[in-house]
Amino acid sequence: MLKSPRMMINLSIEQRPEKYLLGKYLRYILTIFCYLSILMVDALVAAPVKNKVAFIEEPSRINKVKSAYLYNFLKYVTFSDEKIDTSPENYFVCVLGVDPFGSQLELMNGRIAKGKKVAIKRMLSVEKASHCHLVYVSRSKQLELEPVLEILRQSSVLTVSDIPEFTQKGGIIRFINKNDNIKLEINLKEAQKAQIKISALLLEIASIVE
Asked: By the 8 A CB rule, do 181 and 6 touch?
């Protein structure tokens, strides 16, 4: 049986070997989900495109992994009832600033997560992001990070980025690239402030920032 996030954080030393094995198992499961998402997007990239301009450059493997995570985050977090009521049919995944994903993220437009369609949006102004469920803050917004996060915090938004010290400065999930492998860092307190519940499965494979 999965334990609550609080119970997992407070596990005793004697229980750590068991937790380690569980963590490896859960990490394996989530990795499979992410790579299945990548394979589905690869199939879309390979498919013939009619009446549309084909994408010239295929995104890097790291961006494929990140975009797959963005989609899967929607399956492993729960937003407040108030946030869900603002858009009963869609999950809005928004990129704030210069988009590093390009066609990779666009191909996830219209996919289903928890019974809702994923809608991809791009914007330069944080004031337009209040309706978003998940906002990826690009590195082009690094110098404005603190005021950006303050505005998004008031709208119960799941904030994600790869900006250094993102979670220490108030972001919720940070991508960390270690030897071409993506690791997750989660600020659980900021998630709670935003009234976002993160599943035990996701917490198990991440580093928790206090």
From this structure: no
**Tokens 């450059």 belong to which residue?**
57
Structural domain total, the chain: 1
pTM for this model (two decimals): 0.74
Beta carbons within 10 angstroms of residue 74's beta carbon: 19
Q: What is the CATH number of the domain that holds 66?
A: 3.40.50
Tens digits of per-residue pLDDT, 127-145? Answer: 999 899 999 999 999 999 9
- Report the Cα–Cα distance between both ends of the chain, in Å, rounded: 25
Count other C-beta atoms under 10 Å from residue 76's C-beta.
19
What's the rounded Cα separation, in Å, for the pair 135 and 141?
12
SS3 29: helix
Distances (CA, A) of 34 to 41, 59, 107, 150: 11, 16, 15, 30
Q: Token digits for 62?
A: 């790291």
Report, as an integer, the average pLDDT of 12-28: 48
Distance CA 59, CA 53 (A): 16
